[in-house]
Design brief:
heterodimer, A: alpha+beta, PmbA/TldD fold, 4-stranded antiparallel beta sheet, 35% helix, 31% strand, B: alpha+beta, 11 helices, 35% strand, globular
Chain lengths: 147, 522
């Protein structure tokens, strides 16, 4: 799943609201992937994947722990935070531990392409046909991976 | 015979699924409720796939957990736990595959996933110049688990951390100035259901402990590493408990220190004796990958590569000397590819076959839909998918070099060498995309003079091509020397997938192999 800035902020705020640790850092990522693979001038495999990943690092003093999961519903997020805190509590102290920096400001990311996000399996297949046509025209055996 | 979905749901409810080990006894979770949940998801996905027009469909539902603890000297660097689950649906529509996955486990998402997979197959029909032909896979309802003594996830994290620090302390007490170590544990509950009526559950455990000590020479700026030889295994926490870490750490510290002072090797042709801790990787790269049927037909040309082995070589190619037999299997205790079924739902008994028999190449590894390329009736259970979001592709089962039938010891192999090198442990490797020209390093190198181990060497790599190398093998250790190595992360496919696989081997002697000096000019 592709998260908007607002959705990511809401999830991040929710995650941190569950935290009872002295410091907590949450990383959230989501994706929507579509792929098709060609070899021997034919399609071999393809795939579509909607995914989500969340990692939380919690610390108490110099003890820290990390937990990661792939579920975005509130109960799972809360248990992820709890798990990272459990791990931190039983971990030995890390003498090199540094607390996370305070609030930062970041420039807007420019990596998002609405055109890419709109691509369908049919669009990818059309691109694949271009590859196959080029291979056949040159009488070579083509292989490609389109994602 | 195909088993109706309603029947397997009824079987689940009645607790009548059988054939494998009693899974519920091995785990503490509410396994029956998980099976019922998965059966409902599978039913929704398979019904939706059939309604949307799939001629064949299979569903994989995975619940995975992992723990990683890492330590450097006297401190724990990181403790991370992870849990994930999801579902993937593969469909075949008019001879074209479609695949879709989701991490949301409810029947509505499972059905939507199937519909997406069918849409994908239909969209890609225009790209299909060849149609996939599937053999019939026998339908089974079964459960199986990796046999373990102690679930690693039942051991408290602080206890594991203490054990890890104890290993580092032993290495430092033995004189190692620097040491790193980690424990990695994986538990994966994997379900497979197919439109043919199969419903399979397999519970996997993988455990990987590793220690690396580093010795340094401030005068020259040189450093030397020595890692533990313990490979990842399909095992529980008993694998860590049963190892003599104090001895391993002490030996590693001593070896690393000796490596600093070892003399640089003289390049040239020499006889080699390879310990299985080194040979497993050479076996993996040169025999394991070269005998994958999808490579032979160009299906991996875009990424992992092809192979010098041609389909017509089956039964003809003198791949190795006559003493060499290499077997595939999925039933070796501790094997990372050991399972009751592969990820196409093929029973593991099909994965017991010779790849090389008395030097002759006999069989390729195959997933479903490939056997007819070479006129065979069915796959040999060599399919694997890294996770729920990955299309199952052809991957290695356990592939192992068979011991000599004589009781040959390592010392006897060495005794037969006038001027050679003995190599222990795996190091760097490089091999071309046809799996032909290669170069391998190692961890520890010793010269062999007049049948005896001599001084330690450094800067050693051996270089050869696959068929001449294996035909230069003239001595193998006996069964007492057998050792099972392996890796958790063999890469192949696009999107790239990582697969766990084990390789057993015995010490082996090779005549007249080119030795390189890797330190020359540095």
């Amino acid at each position: 799943m592709i998260l908007s800035e607002g959705e990511a902020r809401e999830l991040g705020t929710k995650l941190l609201s569950y935290s009872r640790a002295e410091t907590a850092v949450a990383e959230i990522s989501g994706w929507s992937r579509l792929n098709v693979r060609l070899a021997c001038n034919t399609v071999t495999t393809d795939g579509e994947d909607e995914g989500f990943h969340c990692r939380v690092e919690s610390s108490f003093g110099k003890r820290r722990g990390e937990a990661a999961g792939n579920k975005a519903d509130p109960n799972d997020l809360a248990s992820l935070v709890r798990r990272s805190e459990e791990v931190a509590r039983v971990s030995p102290e890390d003498p090199e531990f540094l607390p996370p920096p305070g609030a930062e400001t970041y420039p807007p990311a420019k990596g998002y392409s609405p055109e890419a996000a709109r691509l369908s399996a049919k669009d990818l297949a059309e691109q694949g046909q271009t590859v196959l046509a080029a291979a056949q025209a040159k009488r070579v055996v083509g292989a490609a991976f389109l994602e | 015979m195909s088993i109706s979905r309603r029947k397997f749901l009824q079987s689940l409810a009645a607790g009548l699924l059988g054939g494998g080990a009693p899974l519920a006894a091995a785990t503490s979770e509410g396994e029956p409720s998980r099976r019922e949940e998965v059966a409902r998801l599978a039913e929704a996905a398979l019904d939706a796939a059939r309604t949307a027009g799939a001629g064949y469909a299979d569903v994989r539902v995975l619940f995975s957990e992992s723990e990683v603890l890492s330590a450097r000297e006297d401190r724990i660097e990181n403790v991370e736990v992870s849990a994930s689950s999801g579902l993937g649906v593969r469909v075949l529509v008019n001879g074209v595959w479609g695949f879709s996955s989701t991490s949301v486990l409810d029947p509505a998402h499972a059905s939507a996933c199937s519909r997406s997979a069918v849409e994908m197959a239909k969209a890609n029909r225009a790209l299909a110049t060849q149609r996939v032909e599937l053999e019939r896979v026998e339908s089974r309802i079964d459960r199986w688990r990796v046999p373990i003594e102690q679930d690693p996830f039942s051991v408290p994290l602080d206890q594991k951390a203490e054990e890890l620090l104890g290993i580092n302390a032993a290495a430092r007490a033995a004189g190692a100035p620097f040491c790193r170590s980690f424990f990695l544990f994986v538990r994966q509950d994997k379900f497979f259901a197919s439109s043919g009526g199969s419903f399979l559950e397999q519970l996997f455990f993988r455990t990987y402990p590793r220690l690396t000590v580093t010795a340094t020479d401030p005068g020259t700026g040189r450093f030397a590493n020595r890692s533990s030889f313990l490979p990842p295994r399909a095992a529980g926490y008993e694998y860590i408990r049963s190892h003599d870490w104090k001895q391993e750490a002490g030996q590693a510290a001593e070896d690393a220190s000796r490596k600093l002072k070892a003399k640089s090797v003289a390049a040239g042709k020499k006889d080699l004796v390879l310990h299985p801790t080194n040979l497993w990787l050479t076996l993996h790269e040169t025999i394991g990958h070269s005998t994958e049927l999808d490579r032979a037909f160009g299906y991996e040309a875009g990424f992992a590569g092809t192979t010098f082995v041609k389909p017509s070589d089956r039964g003809h190619l003198h791949f190795a000397s006559e003493i060499v037999t290499v077997m595939a299997d999925r039933d070796q205790p501790g094997g990372l590819a050991t399972a009751a079924y592969d990820d196409d739902g093929m029973p593991a008994r099909y994965a017991r076959f010779p790849i090389i028999s008395r030097g002759r190449f006999e069989n390729f590894q195959m997933a479903i839909g490939q056997s007819h390329w070479i006129g065979l009736p069915h796959s040999n259970a060599c399919s694997f998918a890294e996770g729920h979001a990955y299309f199952p592709i052809q991957r290695m089962p356990n592939i192992s070099l068979q011991p000599s039938q004589q009781d040959v010891s390592l010392e006897e192999l060495i005794a037969g060498v006038e001027d050679g090198i003995y190599i222990v442990g795996d190091g760097s490797w490089s091999i071309d995309q046809q799996r032909k020209n290669f170069q391998f390093g190692g961890q520890l190198f010793y010269e062999i003079r007049k049948g005896k181990i001599g001084e330690m060497l450094r800067d050693v790599a051996y270089q050869s091509t696959t068929v001449p190398f294996w035909n230069a093998c003239d001595g193998l250790g006996g069964v007492k020397e057998y050792w099972l190595g392996g890796t958790l992360s063999c890469g192949k496919g696009q999107p790239v997938q990582s697969a766990p696989v084990s390789h057993g081997a015995v010490p082996a002697r090779f005549r007249g192999i080119q030795i390189l000096n890797t330190g020359r000019g540095t």
